[in-house]
Amino acid sequence: MSQSTPVGNLLREITLAGAMILFLVLGLWAHTGSMPPLVVVESSSMIHDVDGEVGSIDAGDLILVKNSSFENIVTFAESSDPSDPSYGYNMHGMNGDVIIYQKNGDPGTPIIHRAILRVETGQTLTPDRNISDDRNDSAYCPEGGIWDPNSMDSDGKLGTCVLTWSVPGTNVTNQEKITIHFDGINAGYYDCKRMAHANVEPFLVVWEWQPKSAGLMTLGDNNQCSVDQGGMVVNGSSGVHSESGVAKPVRSDWLIGVAGGEIPWLGSVKLMSSGGNSPGTTYVPDSSFVYLSIIIGSILIAPLILERGLKKVMENSPEKYQMILEQSNYDSSEE
């Protein structure tokens, strides 16, 4: 029988560690249906407490990315409407799903924000399909309407001229422009976490918005009602930007997944080594480093404590006593 060498032992340990990581990733993939199954939160746009809070999404958290159909996403408007089947649905500390998406489908760091409302087409007109190039609304829609190339027309083809819009979970049905007060009366109450002043309400107000396409309006929980889709939707909103401009309503093909379970603090390790355009650990709460240190310390100390505990249990076990007694009797018989 050949003896193990240090190099052989090292290779074996590396192989075992790699296999464990592989099985963990495959298990998460099977659970979430997404690859990669985890994302690391880099910014503070979703925090509920500056000191960090388990249950909400803080910078440095690992978030499971669940595969979901676009139609199954529950918005804040729907889950705060008592007449809606999803009423009361809550994820990560507030009503509605949190989604991960690519801004306008462009490359770059994905956004993880809450789905506030869903814009759906209402009345439509069939466009002039003789247009062969990408022109403006009036060319595709000579009889009026907004050209939405990604919504289905009544003729069963992609692309339609939208005359009106509807928003499930609100009183907006077949409206040319969308106005919603999330004041707890006309729609569920959305707290902007800001003082009311000079015609600025403490709650979310979507005002005279005429969308350019159907999709989801999104907002970070900590962004004081500055919605991702910008000032054309909510007055004063700066929006989030990509290579092609301010984010448009999120389409199904831009969706990466829905935020599932949270693994707090552990993502801070990745952020410590991040470079490029990553903010690193700038937005990670101080408490996260404390808890992360406790976890790492526990992982290092636990084997020593476990080994000593098992050794003590074995020494005091009846089997150990019986073995000593049998050995003593054997030695006496030999004499």
List its traits.
335 residues, alpha+beta, seven-stranded antiparallel beta sheet, three-stranded antiparallel beta sheet, 6 helices, 21% strand
- Global structural class: alpha+beta
Strand content: 15-25%
Specify the biggest β-sheet: 7 strands, antiparallel
Ends distance: 36 Å
Query: How much helicity do the residues have?
Result: 25-40%
Find the count of extended strands (DSSP E, 2+ residues).
16
As residue ranges, the low-confidence spans are none
Radius of gyration: 28 Å
Question: What can you tell me about this protein's structure?
Answer:
By secondary structure, this protein is of the alpha+beta class. It has helices at residues 6-32, 76-79, 137-140, 268-272, 286-315, 318-334, and strands at 38-40, 62-66, 90-91, 94-95, 98-101, 111-121, 124-125, 146-152, 158-162, 165-166, 178-181, 205-209, 215-219, 241-242, 245-246, 255-263. The strands form 5 sheets. Strands 1, 2, 5, 6, 10, 13 and 16 form a 7-stranded antiparallel β-sheet that branches. Strand 14 and strand 15 (245-246) form a beta hairpin. The longest helix has 30 residues, at 286-315. It is elongated, with a radius of gyration of 28 Å. The protein starts with 5 loop residues before the first helix and ends with a helix. The mean pLDDT is 86.
